[in-house]
Amino acid sequence: MPIRLARFSQWKCAAAMGAFALSAAANVERAYANPTVIDIPAGPLAGAIDALSRQARISVAVQGRLPAIRTRAVRGRMEPGEALARLLAGSGWRARQVAPALWQLVRAPEGSRPTTPPPRPAQHPITPPLNIVVTALKREQLLSSAPVSIAVAPGDRFAGGSSARGSSDLGEEVGSVFSTHMGPGKERLFLRGVADSPFNGPTQSTVGLFLDDARINYALPDPDLRLVDIDRVEVLRGPQGTLYGAGTLGGVVRIDTNRPRLDESAGGIAIEGSTVARGGDGGALEGWVNVPLIRDRLGLRAVAYVDRDGGWIDDSERQKTNINSVRRLGGRVNLRWKPDARWTMDLSVVAQGLKARDTSYATEGLTRATALAEPNRNNFLLVRIDAKGPIGGIDFLSSTAIENNNVVSRYDASAVAGSVGLAGPTAYDEKRSIYLITQEFRLSRSQGPFKWLAGVSIVDAVNVNFGTFNANSGGSVQVRRQGNLSLEAAAFGEGTLALRNNLDLTLGVRAFVSNIWDDPRKTSDPSIDQYGLSPSAALAWRPTPGSLLWVRYASAVRPGGRNLDGAGTLVTFASDKLHNIELGSRLSLLDGHLDLDLTGFALRWHNVQSDRVGLDGLVVTTNVGDASNYGIETAVRGTWRDFALELSATRQHGRLESALIEDSDLRLPVLPDISGRARLSWNRQVNDWGLGAYMSANYWGPTRLGFDPNLPLDIGARWLVGAGVSASRDGWRAVLSVSNLLDNRSNSFSFGNPFTYRLQPQFTPQQPRTVMLRLERSF
To answer: What single-letter DSSP state applies at residue 450?
Structure first.
């Protein structure tokens, strides 16, 4: 197995060269010079050499000490020699190959050294798809060769280059992502029009939201984690049942965090101040630190943040202003241990508490009148342990995650107090919790003509729901007390075979069994059992190095279950299943300066589960029939000198078919037929200054709220425009941005209180124009 050589004396270097030469003579068929996927961030040369040694399975020697230089980021599919040349460009050093898997760093001849240092990269460059390495497919793969509709948003975009701050804001940065806009800590994300309902019932989400390899939403809303110290966000559109299992009918959103570096200390701090037009003031404080505890062996990376979003809704009855302000406090700690050069272990703890003083709906302008406040809290805790490394020529990964998420909501239920025997101002208090344990083992091989992965996973989830009416006079009536236990075990695999140099066939399947008990304490009682297969297949053709065409079939299943209706009776809802086929293309032109994506899709959704609000104001899950959706997703990315342009649009037609309810409007909820976004950015290095500016625009067409034929609650089209400027120098950076630049008050959601929305018009206006100033310091 290749061994990294960091600092050699001259005789040790010669001995090592001889040993590797003998090894190479006995194994000449090993292709150490084959192109491989390389992903090395900018930083000290020592860390870059270590990363390259692991990724390319080579060793690098140097006579004396490694030079103390910083390297550029190197990403893409290339031979080790090319990667070394890029790392050493402009440094006065070069690499020469002395054996099939051994390279030596030497001083470049005096005449070949550049007289001026290499130019600094732009502040926010757009990396061409040919060089982007994605991990959402559970193995490292170049975006240019991934036969699936996928979008990548860089992590630094959320550190001042966008109004998006939390995971629920991803719809502002990625096309075909839609949110319910129920409020922080209560929102649901939808992908590719696979939208069942905006309401938060007991069903699993249709989109899998992952923090690294740990799922964080399951059967509860998105916890809206603040996106601090993020490497990138990857969005897989379309069902991902083969690799990710139940509850990924619409796709997967994966948030990749920055992991500890073991070779250098670094950190940063940022402070924000914001003000909302005709609303309150807000701000944030965030910081991160990276500390090598034992160089090249043990390191710590920690993140902490606190923020406050100023409210903008007033309550005339309670004589209060800016009632919907939100506070958020959280952080992450990641401890990385490398017992040797090939194996890595990570222990991570993530925690966040979010509290909203009140809901964000209005009945007129930016005002409403309620007798009681309607606050909500979302408390999230995640502990994760990962271990990965090679076993022979195969990569191994073990990922264990334990999650506890608690959501507490209150609504003014005075309008229905009489129906439950209470009088006067009455609140409905709902407490929902999820206790989730996941374990996954994976084996994979990413080199050679046959690339594959295989694994097993176990999911253990306890879902608890308590609902109680509480009157100010002191009386209370509990109407919901329910908990269930879900167990799912699965084995999955996917392989890619190179039929020709430019033609790949990918086949995958997941075999699963799930059991659901109505009472976690009584597993001896009968359960709802289900087993089945989730297959997938793709054929990808690369007619030229910068183009990819594919056809892909995929499927996913969401288990059924039982829930309480308004009368307190357990009602069974069946599982639903989705089949999707897509034709996609990805094209890179003008040496990577222009990238075009075009995907057409058609899906069939059987036995759609949907959360509906009953006349008593309580949410119940039922099956509403079959649905279909077909459409086109487009994306264009272009760079010219200091400018970068991103455009995306989605045109789709999602409708109910064979409906089990009588409804003249068969549109799927929350799903606009037309949506799009545009972003123009400018970045330039002027001497020691990095200057930048951007402008963005998002459009969502008309849609509807749900499947209630008596009260469809249409939502009109809306725009959201933002802009910002930035300047940086010597580790300092300042950003001034404006969100909702046009101060648009369009309705983003036609629902606020489930007990009164049938009695009076309700809508959720977009957050008014907000100005934010951010100051960062990195060290």
So the answer is: E
